[in-house]
Specification:
Two copies of one chain form a homodimer. Chain A is an alpha+beta fold. The first copy, chain A, folds into two domains: 138 residues, PurM-like, N-terminal domain (60s Ribosomal Protein L30, Chain: A, 2-Layer Sandwich), CATH 3.30.1330.10; 182 residues, PurM-like C-terminal domain (Phosphoribosyl-aminoimidazole Synthetase, Chain A, domain 2, Alpha-Beta Complex). In chain A, 33% of the residues lie in helices and 22% in strands. In chain A, the strands form two sheets. A seven-stranded mixed beta sheet of chain A has the order 7-9-6-10-8-11-12, with helices on both faces. In chain A, strands 2-5-3-4 form a four-stranded mixed beta sheet. In chain A, strand 3, helix 3 and strand 4 form a beta-alpha-beta unit. In chain A, helix 2 packs parallel to helix 3 and helix 4 packs across helix 5. At the A-B interface, helix 1, strand 1, strand 2, helix 2 and strand 3 of A face helix 1, strand 1, strand 2, helix 2 and strand 3 of B.
Chain lengths: 332, 332
């Protein structure tokens, strides 16, 4: 059945089944923000053919990824999620099952965090377009900002980078990566299709990250646009520089069984969509956090007073490199 | 200059000038919700050619209208605005001046309420699509719900209806309405292009609407989809019925100098986009509120226990009519 056969009211009724009953039926949703917490708001827009496509992304995964990207922005602020709204415009010829699977992907991604869909809008368009706005809360003193990194801070990544870009490559060119095991191949594709926002890191920082030392200063953001972009954005906002050690960048071990190390580092730096957190904090705290996180978490460099971001190569094979913002992904 | 010539970063930089400086530069915006207040969230999606078009709407007005619709949803909940986010996807060939005028319209509509743009997203698409999410706050005991109307309540509209639909008619068919004065014509077009959300009513209800009687029970919603739809939605949510008096429906006096009364009533009931509030509350409170509001505010009927919505005709010219939801605007 197509959306135009079901009609707007019919589609709305089906989609409302994905929302908590008590939040439906008014002009807006009512939510509770805990006392003393700041509200955190972030919004993302995704367009069919630009951000997802039937070629690489099922409707379930498109919904999952869109949601993960927004939850990752909340995690990047140190915030816990409260809810999301979904705006969806689409041609009347889209199958209703596409829309339902898309919503199932959203709900599956939200489920571990008990986060509801609290509202939305649907309308007609010539191209499927999704706008997700996520709300969260954070104690103002625990908010992770981009602007508070200081020279001497360790730069920590919460997991491996380059996996999502590698998974995309496998989806676009299934003949590639013949040397990979079936499990490794599946893991890379999974990293692209079902990224997991690092809200677990937020909980860890909130509950014990300061080791009882009181206020914890953590600068950071997520690596949705690549590790290089994250470090560059933090440095620009904090008016500092950084040294990244090329050999410390964690990428999936399976990658080097498939591509040259130079390619793996390129994907880690610029591939994007790994949705890890890039955090700047005192070295001792960073080391403890790396141990707690495991799974590819690593210290990859340090913040410097010199306002450039340098990719250091201790091996002597590649030479040092100055990183610049221009190399990242650009729309238009 | 076109958007693709300026590039994503260049466009973002221009648009950030419309936002407060302290809210820019992180993965999400931090906002403060006052203690004891609930967060109210609403989202709308608008598509070029469906919700606005260069034929009837300048970019400034498209921005204004989209914003007014969202603020009206907050007003319909009894909430005061805290901020909005804007998702914008558009072809690279759109003129940068179009985008800037669109944002100017948004900011102009927000300005009387000191409400900031707190975030957003831009990306490439084949069709201009706008998603606005608005946040507000309301004391939980003051929230206006659709589900709390009771038999005997007066049904109050905060202003005239049909003006927006009439203005649209004049824009689509400039040869129409030759009998209208230039001022009346301009006022009707203004009603369509620059609707004003009734946040003033929210302030009035909050500050003195209960006349010192303590808790005020007000059911209601806005009339964005027409007066008939609003009454029907409230009745459905509250499991009640209503009688609307045809002769009490307020429409702009100029309308009857142009179209037959039957047409004016049709536009008032089904035209939509007047963005007034339709409130159900005890008759004495309603009468006081009508006096305070003036400007077309009126009691148009009453809530009944019988679960049908009847349009009563005391003149005997038209006969009574049962109103149904199906007649409203349907997408797809």
């Amino acid at each position: 059945m197509q959306v135009r056969q079901l009609g707007e009211q019919g589609l709305l009724k089906r989609l409302q089944e994905f929302c908590p009953v008590d939040l439906i039926g008014d002009d807006a949703a009512l939510l509770t923000v805990a006392a003393g917490q700041s509200l955190v708001v972030t919004t993302d827009m995704l367009v069919d053919g630009v951000h997802f496509s039937d070629r690489t992304t099922s409707p379930f995964d498109a919904g999952w990824r869109a949601t993960a990207a927004n939850l990752s922005d909340l995690a990047a602020m140190g915030a816990s999620p409260l809810g999301i709204t979904i705006g969806l415009s689409l041609p009347g010829t889209v199958e209703v099952s596409w829309v339902e699977q898309f919503y199932q992907g959203i709900v599956a991604c939200l489920q571990p965090y008990s986060t509801p869909i609290v509202g939305g809008d649907i309308c007609r368009s010539s191209v499927i377009t999704v706008s997700i706005t996520a709300f969260g809360q954070v104690s103002p003193s625990r908010a992770i900002r981009r602007s508070t990194a200081r020279p001497g801070d360790a730069i920590l990544v919460t997991g491996v980078h380059g996996a999502s870009r590698a998974g995309l490559e496998l989806l676009l060119h299934p003949d590639q990566g013949q040397g990979l095991s079936a499990a490794d191949r599946a893991a890379l594709i999974q990293a692209h299709q079902r990224p997991v926002p690092r809200l677990d890191v937020v909980a860890l920082l909130r509950d014990g990250g300061d080791g009882g030392d009181g206020l914890l200063r953590v600068a950071g953001m997520d690596s949705s646009d690549g590790l290089a972009d994250a470090v560059l954005q933090i440095c620009r906002a904090s008016r500092v520089g950084a040294e990244i050690e090329r050999n410390l960048i964690p990428f999936p071990p399976s990658l080097t069984a498939w591509v040259l190390e130079a390619q793996a580092v390129e994907w880690a730096l610029y591939g994007g969509e790994d949705f890890e957190l890039v955090l700047c904090l005192p070295r001792l705290v960073a080391q403890r956090l790396v141990e707690q996180l495991g799974n590819g978490a690593a210290i990859v460099g340090r913040i410097t007073a010199e306002p450039t971001v340098v990719l250091r190569d201790r091996s002597g094979l590649y030479g040092d490199e100055i990183l610049r913002l221009e190399k990242g992904f650009q729309h238009f």
